[in-house]
Amino acid sequence: MKGRRSSSDSSSSSKTKKPQYSKFTQQELSACKPILTPGYVIGIFIIVGVIFIPVGIISLFASENVVEIVDRYDEGCIPPNYSDDMLAYIQNSDTNKTCTRSLKATKLMKSPVYIYYQLDNFYQNHRRYVKSRNDKQLWSKKHEDETKNCAPEATSNGLSIVPCGLIAWSLFNDSYGFSIKNKMVKVSKKNIAWESDKKHKFGSDVYPKNFQNGVLIGGGKLNSSIPLSKQEALIVWMRTAALPTFRKLYGRIESDIQANDSVTVIIENNYNTYSFGGKKKLVLSTTTWIGGKNDFLGIAYITVGGLCLFLAISFILVYVVMPRPLGDPAFLSWNRHPAGHQI
Amino acid sequence: MAGNRRKKHHFSRIHAFSCGKTSFKGDHSLIGGPGFSRVVHCNDPESFEASVLNYSGNYVRTTKYTLATFFPKALFEQFRRVANVYFLICAILSFTPLSPYSAVSNVLPLVVVIGATMGKEVLEDWRRKKQDIEVNNRKVKVHCGEGAFDYTKWRDLKVGDVVKVEKDEFFPADLILLSSSYEEAICYVETTNLDGETNLKLKQALDATSNMHEDSNFQNFKAIIRCEDPNANLYTFVGSLELEEQQYPLTPQQLLLRDSKLRNTDCIYGAVIFTGRDTKVFQNSTGPPSKRSKVERRMDKIIYFLFGILVLMSFIGSIFFGIATREDLQDGKMKRWYLRPDDTTAYYDPKRAAVAAVLHFLTALMLYGYLIPISLYVSIEIVKILQSIFINQDLHMYYEETDKPARARTSNLNEELGQVDTILSDKTGTLTCNSMEFIKCSIAGTSYGRGVTEVERAMARRKGSPLEEEVTEEQEDKASIKGFNFEDERIMNGSWDNEPHADVIQKFLRLLATCHTALPEVDEENGKISYEAESPDEAAFVIAARELGFEFYERTQTSISVHELDPVTGTKVERSYSLLNVLEFSSSRKRMSVIVRSEEGTLLLLSKGADSVMFERLAENGREFEEQTKEHINEYADAGLRTLILAYRELDEKEYIQFNEEFTEAKNSVSADREELAEEIAEKIEKNLILLGATAVEDKLQNGVPECIDKLAQAGIKLWVLTGDKMETAINIGFACSLLRQGMRQVIISSETPESKTLEKSEDKSAAAAALKASVLHQLIRGKELLDSSNESLGPLALIIDGKSLTYALEDDVKDLFLELAIGCASVICCRSSPKQKALVTRLVKTKTSSTTLAIGDGANDVGMLQEADIGVGISGVEGMQAVMSSDIAIAQFRFLERLLLVHGHWCYRRISSMVCFTLKMLIDKLG
């Protein structure tokens, strides 16, 4: 007993509980903590304002320079005798779906002129729709029979569909032909899909099989001799849009369109948007460094910049009218309401 | 050997009142009945009767979990958090097709969160486990038959074992004292671990067992103890011992509690009666109430709000989903044909759109789950652990003298430290160090001692006195002797001989050296003498006497020996006084006396006591210095000192013999009012005293207390002092620690006025109470008027209230008024308050003002207050561990509170709140 105690005594005398010194535990690491003095705050706001407003103006100009022609054709392409029952027209395979529209270029459209189709009220982001595909099947021939998640468009007559699922099944199948001054214009449909999609998601050895030969035919058909990686329209379609109104790239016109040129478009109006009340639009647009026509970025920059300048000016005014020293203890809560407490 | 000699002392003489015979009192008739059913077969734990009883062993477990209960218990704790339940439901649902994303991404975060918190639990529990193992494997000598004692582990002790505990060892279980190495079978016990009191307590065994001083005596010892069932009451015990067909009553006087320590006694023999969890200490230990910080509670509200938003979003979303789904198929016509509503599952079935909507609701709950920040809990936990490390490791809060760093015992209150509004502080041991210093004295009408008290220094500082600097420097130069801060060349080093009234000074010092109950302890290496005293005051007197040349060095059975400086020869001579009686100190008597016979043969009654009782006991011819002494006492009191009056009287032989007979008879009587009887007789002889002088000891403030209080006041933190001391002392200390200032107007609410005293004496107790209450109410209203009318120029108010008034002020109909007044005052001091009142005041402030309260204290009497307050800070000082064990944060010195609150509290609050805000901002970003 005695021996044990003495040994513990000696160990406790050599081992003190004094904390080890280190800059970290003593919280003495060098640190920089800016104090937001009026000068700093006003300065930062002014700088932000001064930078943002020009950026916004430039963006707006760039957006203004984009030439864009938008033509809604879903209603216009219905023959007058079907205007009461558009659904019957579109679902009838015997009706003539060809429709001619004439567009006018207001300004010179430099090549390349991009052709988009714009759908409206089409929920590509619906949970059922988004999941209805099988990426394994799309990528490799080995997994041709892999149709998980694809129901109800997984199999047809007991054979698995390639590409399976609702997305592929509802492929957009309107087509456009362009002519200017009665001269056909060449539309390039190559290189409209993401390079990564072509190389890593859609296999070059996967060919369409049993596609669109069920009872219910959804959208477009596919040429079963072309591998999926080359079916760029499908690849574009299968990159689903996040919002119900979306544009998808159809192709490119590789020549300029002169101002006041009249562009004649021959549309094969096949795709059914009539049952859910969606609109179809054809869009021709040029691009600049900012992309397509979009005023939002410019307006956002100008708004934020303007707000900052406004704040800077009002802070300056407040500072001039009611100045106060930094860190005035008189503003502490217990000093503002002296309730019996005095220092 | 000092110990051997002491073995023969008749200590019963020193403790005249506390020792004596015991008798069967009322409670003992309960033995054997319900609640008093325990039967212990001493020295025979293996017998059949004993094994039938099957009392639990002495193994103790303080851990929260065992290996078997860990998972269910810890998991249950985890899922008491609403957020965790939500995540659990999500995790389960994620295995169904309802889930919008894979199960792994849903389960993983939950596992990480719960795993991390449970890991922390394991770590904390492991530390407790290690401590348990250490305690359970301690060894004690146990009687193993044939009169031989052998070492056994504590865990293997059984009820009924006879153990032998040696000096400075802890008792392994609750024991009944059978005998000790002293003749009278007494022993000294230190109960610091139990109640925080540092003084030694005296225990005495029954006469029937007291003669067994050798191991071999126990060879054939058999006894049966019947006693109460295990309970938490430390100060009561009822039982009986059956020895050789004879019944003897057992009282707390024979009970030795686990975790107290044997002191000043070579060894004791005891019978184990309560083991393990049955011991009074373990019955007393309750888990601390779980406290949560305001930030955490606010965060919970935010989470509830977010959860509400989540449900609302999901609900609205599923309604729209239901409508859209139903419309997808009408009269066999598909609307959104690309979704194939004609061929679908239950989740999207237009024909059963309501079901689809409900299922969608569940999916949406998971989908929008980002709204509930699961990571926030983990991050906060990690940040708080880091902050605790910062607090534990802070060198500025490390106290070199006791080798104690600060310890954050719970990490979840860190940020609350920055929100403290009111501090409720104990006085003794917290603001003061609970060490007394002899600093001044008045002898024969002359005041000696040039020491400067903390109060005087504080006063000087306030007046801007330039003296202050010199004074402190001088202080540091001196080699300090604990308990002695006296300096006056007129009487130091024997020069008192040249003073007028040298004979009075000699008597005064002699009285200091003899009139006490302290025990000397001679250090064998350097011959220095230290003293073991019951109170720090007493130690200060003996030390003062030693330093002034009257060194008390030995106490034998009948004598006190002192090295005295002989004024004639200038050498030290040994003088011994035969000690005849000790009339002990008690709070009602407020004085103590000894009767000694000097070497010359004169009988002396030496007495010291409070001025209120001593002046009236002076003889006509003993009042020579009364006026000057009274004057000095008032001066001392103003300087914040505690004073005692010293007086003596010569007895003639006849008077003493008569007294001794009566006193011995009273002492040995068996009646219940034995003590009153003895007091009465003592009262008769303590009269006609001759005044010698007065002493003044300083209740020393801890280092840096006034500065710390000043800083806290500047930060707008209010300090209330709740103390058990009397009003004068409390006010003195208030001035000393700059809580009270000269310019303050004091509102004193007291029930100690002459009128209330007469009220109390009246017969009708309820009428008296009502009148007292009315008087307190009246005083409170007057104080409130003063507060309302006060303007800045009159200076702030200070409220001082005593315990009795507090009883009335805390009653339901008055407490709002009391609180209003108290909040309006700059300083509040509650004196003479009981531990319960401390807790009540704390609760009142906490609930009524809804501000954060911090209680700080060091003793067992502060535990209630510490647990009641939002934050309890324990001072890990001299007074035991009780306060520290029930505190949230332990620091070694009061002054560390400044850094704890103003630095750590501030930073913790800022950091935690910015982290919460940032995490919530990230959430919104994620949603966007």
Automatic annotation (TrEMBL), chain A:
An example GO CC term for this entry is:
plasma membrane
Q: Where are the transmembrane segments?
A: 40-62, 299-322
Which sequence ranges form a coiled-coil region, renumbered to this chain?
A: none
Specify where the region named Disordered lies, as residue ranges.
1-20
Instruction: Keyword check for Transmembrane helix, yes or no.
Output: yes
Please give the chief subcellular localization of this protein: membrane
Entry-linked InterPro entries = CDC50/LEM3_fam
Q: Please state where this protein is localized.
A: Membrane
Keywords linked to the UniProt accession: Membrane, Transmembrane, Transmembrane helix
- What family does the database annotate? Belongs to the CDC50/LEM3 family.
UniProt-listed PANTHER family = ALA-INTERACTING SUBUNIT, CELL CYCLE CONTROL PROTEIN 50
What protein name does the entry list? ALA-interacting subunit
Per the UniProt record, the source organism is Citrus sinensis (Sweet orange)
TrEMBL record, chain B:
Q: Which domain of life is it from?
A: Eukaryota
The protein's name in its UniProt record: Phospholipid-transporting ATPase 9
